[in-house]
Amino acid sequence: MAELVFFSGTMDCGKSTLALQMDHNHQARGRRGIIFTRNDRAGSAILSSRLGLSTEAVEVDDALDFHAHVVKLLSAGARIDYLICDEAQFFRAEQVDQLARIVDDLAIDVFTFGITTDFRTRLFPGSARLIELADRVEVLQVEALCWCGARATHNARTVGGVMVVEGAQVVVGDVAVSEDQVGYEVLCRRHHRKRMTAATARAGVLSPDVLPFEGTPGR
Ligand SMILES: Nc1ncnc2c1ncn2[C@@H]1O[C@H](COP(=O)(O)OP(=O)(O)O)[C@@H](O)[C@H]1O
Ligand SMILES: Cc1cn([C@H]2C[C@H](O)[C@@H](COP(=O)(O)O)O2)c(=O)[nH]c1=O
C-alpha cells in the first residue's frame, strides 16, 4: 500500500542526503519518481545535500497543486511510482493535503523530508500538517549534535554567532556560516532555552534576554 512518510529532523542531520539515496534506490529497482523541493540553499529547482550531491527538482511555489500536477503527467502517459519532497516544512498545509490524496487515490508513495520547527521552536505549517496526516513520521538516525555533545533537537538562528528570536519564519540559510553572517546552529533544548550558542559559550556569555522558562520554579 502506498504511504505518506515524513522524514524529519533538525537542520544538517542528513535529510536531503537520504532523499537523494531513496531516489537512487527506487530508481535502481526500475521505479519512476518526481523530485520536488522549495527554497533549497543551492538555488531554484535543485535538491542539494551537504555531502556534495545534488539533482534537478521541480520548484514548489504557493500556487503549485501537487494533485493536479501529478494527474496531468499521468494523463499524458507518464509513469509515476513515488514522489520525493524536500524542504517540505515550506509547503502550505493544503499542499500536504494534496500529497495525502495522491497517496490514497493514486497509490503513489510520497516521501517528504523537512525540519519540524523554526528558530522559535514553532512548527512550520507544512510540518504541522505532515505530522497530522503522515502514515509514518521517521526521525533521522544520524544525530546532529549540539556544541555540548548532546543530541541536537532544535534549530537556532544566529547573527554574528548570537542566537536571535525575532524575524521572519522563513530565511533560507546554512549552518557553519562565518560569524558575521545570519546563519543557523543546531542545539539541544537546554542550550536553545538558554540561547547559548557555540560562540557565546566560548565567550562565557549568556544572553541577558533569557527565554520565559527561565524563571519557572525547579529549573
Ligand atoms: N565532509 C563531510 N564528511 C562526512 N559527512 C558530512 C560532511 N559534510 C556533511 N556531512 C554529513 O552530511 C549531513 C548533512 O546532510 P544534508 O543532507 O545536507 O542535511 P539536511 O538536509 O538534513 O540539512 C551532516 O549531518 C553530516 O552527517
Ligand atoms: C530553523 C529555520 C530554518 N530555515 C531554513 C534554513 C534552511 O534554508 C532550511 C533548512 O534546510 P536544511 O536542509 O534542513 O538544513 O530552512 C528557515 O527558513 N527558518 C527557520 O526558522
Automatic annotation (TrEMBL):
It is an enzyme of class 2 (transferase). InterPro entries: P-loop_NTPase, Thymidine_kinase. It is found in: Cytoplasm. The active site is at E87. Substrate binds at V170, V171, V172, G173, Y184. ATP binds at G9, T10, M11, D12, C13, G14, K15, S16, D86, E87, A88, Q89. Homotetramer. Belongs to the thymidine kinase family. This is Thymidine kinase.
